[in-house]
Every structure is written in structure tokens, then in C-alpha cells.
Amino acid sequence: MARYIKANPLVARYLQLENDRNMVSDGNYLFWQNDMLRFGPLTQLNDILVKIGGIALMPHEARSEQDGTICRPLPMATDARFQQPIKANVNDAIVGDTNTEQGADGEGENTDNGGNGDEGQANEENAEGDQQPEASESEQTENETKK
Most exposed among 17, 76, 105, 122, judged by the fewest C-beta atoms under 10 Å? Predict the structure, then answer.
């Protein structure tokens, strides 16, 4: 299956595709898999991605990047031509939120397993404001099936 490649603007400039490919909300670009042929054969796509600091995306993942619902961070390029300074605010927010959510989820799971399900819901409401309806509905379903 064809993949989309998310890479930074330096790659777009190198490929001269800045006006031909979609820019996503974080300022990076989505490329077609065939655009990577300028770097080598597609059998070496993983090596190319490491070199340019890009990631391969399935079509539905690329769509979520375009919609702005998900923003995946890019790894640092190993080729100096494609290295750009990391935006501290963006990456800190992504890394910080991920670590916080994992800690909250771990605590919530312990609370759910050993105690009242409502306490776990309260923790999730505080930690994950946007995902509150999905989490609470699934927990309610789990609690109803346990009864």
C-alpha cells in the first residue's frame, strides 16, 4: 500500500515541492511516496526517512494530519541538509502531554481495578478534557457489563 511521507520544510525546499504538496498545521509537509525516489529506491525507504527526518503514514493517518486532529512529531534528520532546530514549545507540549497522560492512565487503571469506577472517571475528566465523552461512555459500558 502506498504511504505518505511527513517531513520538514527543508525537504520540501530540496525537492522543490513547496507549492505542490500539502502543508500541515505544524508547518511540515506531506509528500507522496514517489517523491522519495530522489533520495534512492523505495526499497530503502526506512533509510531515507532516517536521513531526512521523516515518517511514513498510512492514508488515514495522513488525513488526520491534514485535518489537524493529530500532529505527529518528526525525528531529527541525520543528514545535515535537513536538520532544523526543534521548536521547544511544540515538542515540549507533545512530550509533556504524552507523559502526563500515561501517568494519569496508569493511576486511573489502578483506581478502576481496585476501587470505585467513578474515581477513575474523575481523574480522566481532569487529565483528558477533549476525550471525556469517549472515555466515560466506555467505562460506563464496562461497569454495566461487570454488574
Answer: 76
